[in-house]
C-alpha cells in the first residue's frame, strides 16, 4: 500500500508541471527555457541534498562504472520525457496533456518483456523475462478510452495541427519515461536511493539542458523573471519532490511487473490535480462535458488496474512462499 500512496503523492506534485508550464506559456515564455530551467535548478538542489546525506561519492563512482548506460537511459527517461511535454504545452491545455500522459500506464505494461525478474529455482534463483499481463492491458485500455475522449472533446476548439503537435509528443514521452526509469533501476541494481538516482540522471542529461538554454537565449534573449521563478517551483515540486517520491515507489515495487504497473497507474491522479489547479489558478474555461466523462473514465481505469495489479502481486508472493 505504501508504494501506491507514494505514487499518488507524486502525481499531486507532478501535476504542478502541467499547470506551471501553461502559466509560462500564457506569459509568452519559451518552451525550451521551460524544459531546461527545471533541470538546471534541480541539479544544485539535489547536489546539496545528496551531499548532506553523504551519498555523493558513491553516486559518482556508480556513474563512472557505466557512463554510456547513464547517458543513454537518462536521455530516454528525462530528456525524451520532458522536452516533448514542454513542446506540447504550446499547443494544448495542461489538463489535456495530463490526460494524454496516462498512456504511460499502458506503455509500462507493454514494455514488461524488455525486463527480467529473479525467481526461486533449484539450488538458488534464476532470472526470467517478465511477461505481459493481458488482462491488465485490457483494463488499462479503459484509460486509453478516457484519454481519447478528452482529445476528441477538443476537436472543435483546436485545429488538427494543434491536436497532433500536442498529442504525439506526449505519447512519445509516455513511453520514454517508464522505459528510462526501469532501465536505470536495472543499471543501479538497488545500490542507489531515489535521491541519488534522480541526481545522477539529471547530471547525465546536463549537456541537453545546456544546449536548450543556449538555443532559447539565441532565439529570444534571457528568460523573464516570471518564467525563472515558475521554473524553480517546477524544479522543486515536480523535479525533486515528485520524482523522488515516484522513484522511491518504483524501488519498493521493483522485481514485480504488476506492482510497478500499479505504481505507474497512480499517475492518473495528475489529470484530476492538473484540471483543478488550472481552473483555480489560470484564466481557462471549464472543459466540455465529454472531457469530464473522459477524466472519470481515466480515474476509473486507474482504480481497476491498481486493484488488479495488487491481486496479481499477492498471488505471485503466495506462489513464491
TrEMBL record:
Keywords linked to the UniProt accession: Membrane, Transmembrane, Transmembrane helix
Stretch forming the signal peptide: none
Pfam families assigned: EmrE (PF13536)
Transmembrane portions of the chain: 31-50, 70-89, 95-116, 132-151, 163-179, 199-218, 230-249, 289-308
Keyword Disulfide bond carried by entry: no
The keyword Cell membrane is assigned to this record: no
The name this protein goes by in its record: Multidrug resistance efflux transporter family protein
